[in-house]
Amino acid sequence: MIVLDSGALIGLEKDNAKAIAIVRRALARKLEIVVPATVLAQCWRNSPRQHAVSRLLKADAVRVAELTQAQALAVGAVLAASGTADVVDAHVVVLARALAATLVVTSDPEDLTGLDSRIRPHIV
Fold first, then answer.
1. CA of 48: how far to CAs of 5, 15, 16, 90, in Å?
2. How many whole angstroms separate alpha carbon 32 and alpha carbon 95?
3. How much is the pLDDT for 48?
4. What confidence score (pLDDT) does residue 120 get?
5. Cβ within 8 Å of residue 97, ≥6 positions away
6. Considering only CA atoms, which of 60, 70, 65, 59 is closest in space to residue 96?
7. Longest Cα pair distance anywhere in the chain, in angstroms?
8. How far apart are CA 27 and CA 113, in angstroms?
9. By three-state DSSP, how is residue 30 classified?
10. Which end of the chain is more exposed for a tag (fewer CB within 10 A), N or C?
11. CA atoms in the 13 A half-sphere facing the CB of 84
């Protein structure tokens, strides 16, 4: 299972070869791809440029993960412990932990590892 951060969705939108290759490989291997709802909200603009993102969201292996109450509390705890305020990055970290994600795809690895040094981001 992989979790996509905002940088991964933006990478797809901008035709980033690494982002495209990671997603294609995951789909070919039938791995579950999780997009946190907070990531989708941060990135989605309903633009024609987002065709690749739109197509990804329709794939059977892709799941948009809601921010549940329990996760919201965990996100708040992560933010309090780190002294930061980015709810989206913290949601990515909370989901990656909870789902034991094998890969977290991002363009800002320091943002995620600053919240949890155990997160192993893959940079696009």
1. 20, 13, 17, 29
2. 13
3. 87
4. 87
5. 116, 118, 119
6. 65
7. 39
8. 26
9. coil
10. N
11. 17
pTM metric for this prediction: 0.95
What does each of the 124 residues of the chain score in pLDDT, given as a tens digit? Answer: 999 999 999 999 999 999 999 999 999 999 999 999 999 999 999 988 899 999 999 999 999 999 999 999 999 999 999 999 999 999 999 999 999 999 999 999 999 999 999 998 999 9
For residue 46 the two structure tokens come to: 């309903």
Give the residues across from 104 on adjacent strands: 3, 121
Instruction: Look at residues 97, 91, 95 and name the one whose alpha carbon lies nearest to residue 117.
Output: 97
Q: Which two tokens stand for residue 65?
A: 């993960």
CB–CB of 62/35 below 8 Å?
yes
Please name the amino acid found at residue 66. E
Residue whose structure tokens are 């709802």: 37
Rounded (10°) CA dihedral 14, 40, 104, 54:
-50
